[in-house]
Amino acid sequence: MTMLGTLRKLPRTVWLLGVVSFFNDTSSELIYPLVPIYLASVLMAGPKALGIIEGIAEATGSLLKLFAGVLSDRRRSTRPWVAGGYALAASARPLLAFATSWPLVLALRFADRVGKGLRTSPRDALLARTVEPANRGLAFGLHRSLDNAGAVVGPLLAAWLLAEHVPLQTIFLWSALGGTITVCLALAIREPAWDPLPRGKPLTWTLRGLPLPFQRYLAVLALFTLGNSSNMFLLLRARDLGLPDYQVPLLWALVSLTAALFSTPLSALSDKLGRTRLIVGGWSVYSVFYLLLGVNGQALLLWPLFAFYGLFMAATEGAEKALVADLVDKERLGTAYGWFNLTAGLMLLPASMIFGWLWQALSPLAAFGFSAACALLAALLLHVWVLRQPADG
């Protein structure tokens, strides 16, 4: 069967989760590329403040990803976590219009990330449980494609509103529309029946009982994420290289467009060629991108570079999550995704703070070079350690 035919036969829940992500990201990405501009031009805050805001918001919200994942396994229910998480984030974003200092931006970004923390692990587990193992890469790729499509529409709307000289605060308020649609659609989600819980396998908060290859995967993911600071630094770099403010959202839209176009076919390719090959290739692309962005001093080169970054996202976002489901039993998927998302989120705090410090104390090249080195080493370890070593090694 062709990929298109398989896509048509994916369960309704898979498609609905993708459409929900589309409208959520349209709302979120409408304001995401504007936050660095708002901090720098209105609130007069620099890279250190940006690193603190994004690091704390993402890391603290990630604690809830484990909490929600484990409890969704224990209560055998994911839908309330998904709908509630989207509702909280949709409520917080428009309030950025009323922030008068960077600590208030931190509080609202924190609330937004708490909403994401509540929904992400249960949603990933729901998606993995809904689809057959042979189509996991395709299903996660479709979800990422629709999510990234929303990340194209949002920045394009932001660029158009900026070009029309709409105030930043008013743009923030417009995000409420997409958030409302998101919540209404999330309430329509249904989940499949749960299998009986096997006896003698109590659910815990710890990694005990989770397969050793999965634990190794988490260790490598932590190393990669140490060099994967907030994407807002990429937008700040573009602005420092002379890109006009109204083009910053367009640049980010290019990243999302590339990811939206290639996420489904590349993630589906992981169903046939293997997840780790796609992830290793994507992390290598990431390393090259960061190194070139640190060296580059020409604004014109930003456009092909950021399109290149979109290929990294397309190759890894779906495959990384599909690999989790390959390594862990179905009854502990919520817990596994909780640890997966917790690891990535917690490492974002030191990653963002280290990146901001290296940038401000040394140079942009030092910051981007550090990230490139972490990604390259993580790709190597994923290939020679997680992939090649026996499970009991």
From TrEMBL:
Alphabetically ordered keywords of this record: Membrane, Transmembrane, Transmembrane helix
InterPro entries: MFS, MFS_dom, MFS_trans_sf
Top-level taxonomic group: Bacteria
Classification via PROSITE patterns: MFS (PS50850)
Annotated Major facilitator superfamily (MFS) profile domain residues: 13-390
Name of a matching Pfam family: MFS_1
Segments traversing the membrane: 52-71, 171-189, 217-238, 250-269, 299-316, 337-359, 365-387
One Gene Ontology molecular-function label: transmembrane transporter activity
PANTHER family in the cross-refs: C-METHYLTRANSFERASE, MAJOR FACILITATOR SUPERFAMILY TRANSPORTER
Stated name of the protein: Major facilitator superfamily MFS_1
Source organism: Candidatus Accumulibacter aalborgensis
Taxonomic lineage: Bacteria, Pseudomonadati, Pseudomonadota, Betaproteobacteria, Candidatus Accumulibacter
